[in-house]
Design a protein that fits this description.
The protein is mainly beta. It contains no helices and 11 strands.
Length: 124
Amino acid sequence: QVQLVESGGGWVQAGGSLRLSCAASGRTFSIYAMGWFRQAPGKEREFVAAISRSGGSDYADSVNGRFTISRDNAKNTVYLQMNSLKPEDTAVYYCAADRSLGPMPTTTFGYDYWGQGTQVTVSS
């Protein structure tokens, strides 16, 4: 079983940056595909970014070019660097892990483990 703990959320003015971290428990982190999702009030949880076991990445169109996902397998940690933040980025951001060996998922159904989330608030 995997435990995920997000950190790095907070308040930032539009145009600013934040770096989210997700620390994972266990000794098999390197075999998991990892993803970031976000959920704003009244909306469904949506895909933000994902990174494969080999380091390949995928992004939602809404964040492509502004956000960067990365991982450090030695630290069992995945990161989300968020630049040029917009008010519409305001949401609770969740880290997720996929233990399967299949394709890197971009839907909530494709992930097995979830963190508790960290709030990101972007003011205009």
